[in-house]
Specification:
Transcription Regulator spoIIAA, 5-stranded mixed beta sheet, two-stranded parallel sheet, 4 helices
Length: 116
């Protein structure tokens, strides 16, 4: 799994470059985001536009990251989910828990609006 950070004034965008987001690759993202949070970045935006599949462990990791972000007065935002992953998020009601947007611009605007 390749991860690339883009640091913006209000958040850090993490580009997740892998077609399958499942165990054990999910632990790479979990550790990566945890380090960003420990370094003081509180608002993390995950770019899932390159991810084709997501398993239950991947969902669990996203919930774990959301909890960690909120404990540090931050937030986790996602964008770029394909139809299959969006449907899975709706089916599991994760779309009610996670901030999910179609585009990067929408996700970043949401972060800025929520924290300005």
């Amino acid at each position: 799994m390749d991860l690339a950070n883009r640091f913006l004034p209000d958040c850090v965008v993490v580009d997740v470059v892998d077609d399958k987001f499942g165990y054990p690759k999910t632990m790479v993202l979990k550790n990566h985001v945890a380090k960003l949070l420990m370094d003081g970045h509180r608002h993390v935006v995950l770019n899932f536009s390159q991810v084709q599949t997501l398993d239950s462990f991947g969902i669990a990791v996203l919930i774990s990251l959301l909890k960690l972000c909120r404990e540090l007065q931050g937030n986790l935002t996602l964008f770029g989910l394909n139809k299959q992953i969006s449907s899975l998020m709706e089916l599991t009601h994760m779309d009610r828990v996670l901030d999910i947007w179609e585009s990067e611009a929408q996700a970043i605007s949401q972060v800025r609006a929520a924290h300005s």
